[in-house]
Amino acid sequence: VEPWIEGRPFSAEPDWEYYAERVAQTLARVTEVFDWDAAALLRGSHQRRLGTDGSADPTPGAAPPASLDTPLTEVGVRPRRRTTQRSL
User: Annotated region Disordered: where (predicted)?
Assistant: First the structure.
């Protein structure tokens, strides 16, 4: 740890690993609800969407993400699946 003294140029290289671990420990307290610990935060593994583990691609035929221009009547509406009438 190098001291910072006002008026003097700071020429030391910060220990980025140390600060990354400290930030990960702090954030892990908040993200533990999502089962992310400090090690997972340092690895950078994360899920792509809520409710998924990130390992699988989104379901085919899922509605595209809403934007600011999407009408409220279309938000959260999934396209209907095609069904065929089968007679037994």
Answer: 47-88
Q: How many alpha carbons fall within 13 Å on the CB side of residue 58?
A: 8
pTM: 0.43
3-state helix/strand/coil string of the chain:
CCCCCCCCCCCCCCCHHHHHHHHHHHHHHHHHHHCCCHHHHHHCCCCCCCCCCCCCCCCCCCCCCCCCCCCHHHCCCCCCCCCCCCCC
Query: 14-36, pLDDT tens digit by residue?
Result: 888 999 999 999 999 998 888 88
What are the tokens at 48?
């792509």
Distance, in Å, from the CA atom of 28 to the CA atom of 35, rounded to the nearest integer, reads 9
Structure-block tokens of residue 7 = 């008026």
Q: Which of 84, 87, 65 is nearest to 76 (CA)?
A: 65
